[in-house]
Design goal:
single chain, alpha+beta, 13 helices, seven-stranded mixed β-sheet
């Protein structure tokens, strides 16, 4: 009788010790139809074993619609290049367990498995959203045996460099880069974190001959450009209607933002036409007009 009792206790303990967990990160994702594309890409990239057996990890998991917004061409190219795909997916994974409450730290930076940092922003005054490189967390704290999963709105791509690097690499900002050099602001824009409202070349062209006159007046140009720089990293999801301090201390930018920041206007008529360009020291939003501080408007009109 004693042998039977001991056996009945021993066998379940052995089974519990040898049976692999069935609720690891990959299996939890696979059980959710909204993450089917991510699961397929994880397998294609050869990361299924790592995310099943390794950890603990925190995974910022784009849902299917996020991948669909990349377009078929981009998805196809990623699938054909497993190394690039793996690095892209590893950018969504960090070591350790970070639940949502642990991410309520604005400007927190975490090391991804890709070796690059990802920036967490907690926008308490803007609907208390938490974003990861600007990608809003839609659903949080989905637990797995080897970590935690947060569903995010966008596929995250590593930043191309600092704000200056991002501007230099994009041909739409060549006039802005030239203006920053003329005003002696290139080194300052390597600091941060900053949010830059970045006028496109077309925005500067709309000023006509005033561009050359501003370039010839570095002190005035510097004040105008500093008005485009906001301390801190404010992605579109963190922009809300109100006024913001800039590095040009005499004036404030007036922001008008719709729900979830789908449309954002600055100082009434200026529109953000391409938001959320990530940089290692902040974020860039392309705008369609050069912003003129109220305190300098008369001086600039008389140039």
């Amino acid at each position: 009788m004693l042998k039977v009792i001991l056996l009945s206790v021993f066998v379940p303990l052995c089974l519990a010790a040898t049976t692999p967990a069935t609720n690891n990160i990959v299996s939890v994702l696979a059980a959710r139809s909204s993450e089917s594309i991510l699961v397929d890409l994880v397998k294609t990239a050869g990361l299924a074993d790592v995310l099943s057996q390794g950890g603990p990890f925190t995974v910022f998991a784009p849902y299917n619609y996020a991948f669909q917004r990349l377009g078929n061409d981009t998805l196809t190219a990623l699938k054909k290049d497993p190394n690039t795909l793996a690095e892209t997916l590893k950018y969504h994974v960090v070591n350790g367990i970070y639940k949502l409450k642990d991410l309520h730290v604005n400007e927190l930076q975490l090391d991804s498995l890709a070796g690059t940092k990802i920036r967490i922003n907690y926008y308490f005054t803007a609907r208390r959203h938490v974003t990861v490189e600007g990608s809003r967390i839609l659903q949080s704290d989905i637990m797995a045996s080897n970590g935690v999963i947060h569903i995010v709105h966008d596929v995250m791509m590593p930043a191309a460099g600092s704000i200056v690097d991002v501007l230099t690499a994009d041909g739409n900002f060549s006039t802005l880069v030239a203006a920053a050099k003329a005003a002696g602001l290139v080194e300052a824009l390597q600091q941060g974190p900053f949010t830059l409202m970045a006028p496109s070349n077309a925005a500067f062209a709309a000023l006509g001959d005033k561009v050359d006159k501003l370039l010839a007046n570095p002190d005035l140009l510097k004040k105008v450009l500093l008005y485009h720089v906001i301390p801190g990293t404010i992605y579109r999801d963190g922009l809300h209607s109100g006024s913001l301090h800039t590095l040009e201390e005499a004036d404030r930018e007036r922001i008008s933002a719709s729900f979830f920041g789908s449309t954002v206007h600055v100082d009434g008529t200026t529109s953000v036409i391409k938001p959320d360009i990530s940089a290692t020291n902040g974020v860039v939003h392309m705008i369609n007009h050069v912003l003129i501080p109220s305190s300098l408007r008369t001086q600039i009109m008389n140039l």
